[in-house]
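Archive maintenance. Older records in this collection stored only the sequence; we are now back-filling the structure field for every entry so that each record is complete. The fields below show one back-filled record exactly as it appears after the update. Entries are processed alphabetically, and Glycerophosphodiester phosphodiesterase is next in the queue.

ARCHIVE ENTRY
Title: Glycerophosphodiester phosphodiesterase
Organism field: Corynebacterium zhongnanshanii
Length field: 255
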Amino acid sequence: MKVVAHRGASGELPEHTMGAYELALHQGADGYECDVRLTADHQLVCFHDRSVARTCVDAGRPRGLISQMTLAELRGLNFGTVERPAGIVTLRELLDFFFDAGGRDGQELFIETKHPNRFGAAVEWELFKELEARGAAGGGGGGGCAEMMRRVHVLSFNPSSLWRFRGLSPRTHRILLRREFQKVMNPALERAGVVHSHGVSLARGKVRPDIIGRFGRGTYMWTVDQERDVMWAKARGVDWLATNFPGMAVQWRDV
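Back-filled structure field:
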């Protein structure tokens, strides 16, 4: 079972900051997870929410939407702490980190596309271009570095997002995240090659442990932060375990 740092080591440092990813690297995480959104000027940034309100610590709590702000405007905000300011991280910067430092020794990167959003398919297109520039995506005509492609996964709750990315990069490993109300995964998605693996929450996995490992090539589980739950997931064959505390999860797994 591989331990994936959920938005970096986000239980110890502010989520989606470079410091959180660097800490996860030093703690021995097997992989890193990020969410991506497009700014008003079509730059992919690592950010979960539609609005900056929850994670921006500047006075007055700005409430702008990521999609309505330019990258330059976002650069002026503090997403760290008052004592240790941190700027927004672009996907390009995270990819530089991953391939230059964090991608050693078989580590993996999990990129979640956030939908719905005002830009629609542009999210997948910009993501493809960023990965293709590093040889980590293979278009319809092939290409791409097999080793790099093997270590990058695209995730989404939105099947249409994975449909689109299959058309852009057929060989990229794609994971459908299953919402709580979804009782089964649409078998047509797997037969059509849209979905390779599935992702389930810890809560959903405990209700239906029989679905772990049942579909496709591997099961991704989020967000697991307690020792008993890490051990439970390991015993049931979870392949990738997303956690806010990768350092602790690695220790618990390896006991």
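Update note: The longest strand covers residues 31-38. The longest helix spans residues 91-102.
Entry marked complete.
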